[in-house]
Amino acid sequence: MNGYLKRKAEEYRSLDSIDRRRYWVDGLLNNALYILMALFIIFTAVVNKNFLSASSIANVLTLAAASLPMALGIGGCIVLTGTDLSGGRVFGLTAAMAAAFLQNRAATKLIFEHLPNTSGPWIFAVMLLVMLVGAVIGLVNGFFVAKFSLHPFIVTLATQLITYGVILMFFQINGNGGGPISNVAQQFKDVVSGPAIKIASKNVSIPWYVVYAFVLVGVMWFVWNKTTFGKNMFAVGSNAEAARVSGVNVFKTTVLVHTLAGALYGFAGYVEAARLGSITAATGLNNECDAIAACVIGGVSFVGGTGNIGGIVVGVFVLRIIFVALNMLGINPNLQFIIKGSIILAACSLDMRKYLVRK
Amino acid sequence: MKKLLALILALALIMSLSAVAFAEEEVDVSGLKVGVFWYAFSDPFLSTVRASLNEQLDEAGIAFDDFDGNNTQATQLEQIQTAVTNGYNVLVVNLVTSGSADAAEQIIQAAGDLPIIFFNRAVEGDGEEHTVLDEHENIAFVGTDAPEAGHMQGKMIGDFLIENYDDVDLNGDGEISYAMFMGDAGNVEAIYRTQYGVEDANAVLTENDKPELVYFNESNTDKYQLDPNGAWSSAAAFDFMSTNLAEYSESNGNMIELVIANNDDMALGSISALQNAGYNLGDGESTKIPVFGVDATQVAQDAIAADQMTGTVKQDNVGMATAITGVLKGVAAESTLADCVSAVADSDDMFSVAEGFTNKLFVAYAPFTGE
Predict the structure, then answer these.
(1) The domain spanning residue A164 has which CATH number?
(2) CA A5, A6, A8 angle in degrees (round to 5)?
(3) Does B308 lie at the interface with A, CB-CB under 8 angstroms?
(4) Which of A6, A252, B33, B360 is the most exposed place for a label (fewest CB within 10 A)?
(5) Which domain covers residue B76, as residue numbers?
(6) Quick one: what percent of chain A has pLDDT higher than 70?
(7) Does residue B164 belong to the interface with chain A, where contact is any CB pair within 8 Å?
């Protein structure tokens, strides 16, 4: 470590004045997002000291954990230079399914009347089931993208519409007539959104799904960095033709990335069912936009083949910190859109700048 | 061949019989082809209206089709233009842009001389009264009096607070701090509910020598938190309320003591957030923050029964469907829309003709606290 710093210092000393200036300017611009966020956090904390209280930090963590699975899924699609517009609707469908399968059996109004009583294995089985449903939709996305070389924008636009139609039909089951699906079983809530850590004196409560989100981040980090599949994904994303020539199965990789994304939306929907306890047909609307925004803020580039899990986590946190901070500052909600948009624009421009400079 | 002939004859006989069955009803509705245009299939309350209306229209033997505007006024207008060319002869329209006279005028023009029944979402905005409904003979409106739900919610809150003031005032500072969740910035119903939900509660409080409600966050001058997607969603209310509760709590002595939401979904979202913080569990031990909504959806009624929610305002889905079906039957009998409206208004106490109008039918709201 000491040697590294010394070497860096040597390098810096050997630069002439122009290069030294460039060193600082580049450093500032490449990290502008982090610097701005740090300033923003300090500003918010000075104006409202509650912002950095234990309960507030727990809240940011909780909100971020709810949107992480979706962003982790969509990140892979962006690495392939694609996108996924169907994410929000898949999220909505799986949330509705999870809620319907795990309703409190004693409730008067049930979507499905003949289901097993809520038990540990059944709760786990429903998780696998909704992830499977998500994965199947993802598989369809991936198949059409890979088989017919269709742009994912078009394929997922189509599946978004199809999924929404299925959602509307799902809400009509058993005379529900489009009403919200609710009365979710308490056991299900306990294991997903029940508190994992609770400090009553500090008003801090961290639900289990935060723990799951951390596990998921670990798993996805492993998948992206340590598996052949992850390496193939980046190879296909940077240059599909080159990847094909060097023996990567582009078809399989594309299909798998979308399938994995779908399964993650399924998991996100599963968490949402427990988190909200009441799911409507509009649940999940525009969720994919936030997930895409988080990815691009975190440096997953539409250029393809670049991005990392850490960046996605940062992106998700940036969006949630903005949401919480603007609320705590009491700023007009309309401004939130302008600020969010500006940040996406700035983050992506700075990101692209790196590639332009390199060329 | 003979068998086939017999079959055709039998079918013809059945069909002529069913034609007789239609004729036996009070009015012949067989000439109607009704297009029902919903602002969004995903809206939970309107989905219950849709279920009731479909059932009643089927029962009355009226031919109809439902269309989903998907929350886009342009889509709805295009659907209506297509429907007009496709031979629909009565339009039942749930306007997307609630309270937009211009949007309504465009639809009226597209419909030519076909009768239109607007319902649920207002066609005339605040200060635009009589600009649409009085100008056309061939249209009617079936809905609720937009400010009424807000007034009713506000009064219910005021009455509740007078009864339970000291229990609600958790920190004992003599004032009640409240949170308000607004569904959609552009919707007149949402605007009225946001305004009157507080104003009318304050009126009751002032009458009883209590101080007015105080918005929990001084720095938010809007005094409401708005669903950024305009979707009246429980998810938006949940995220806001979770964030609020991270900052405002009993241990800080500034807990939010009352929650007012524009609809039941938002009320339920805030209840989920409260439950995560250990409130409103309905177990008889946890502190219950009074939460008020509007619509009286089944889920909200269950929550009130489970002692997790305090009150809501019932918007009657069956009543609205009955009113629309009633007007449609009148149209089939070729009476003017004003006559249809007054006939329906006379049929039940819950319906009334709006003051100063001939073609505007109100379906009454009712307070609902589970009693």
Answers:
(1) 1.10.3470
(2) 65
(3) no
(4) A6
(5) 26-144+316-368
(6) 99
(7) no
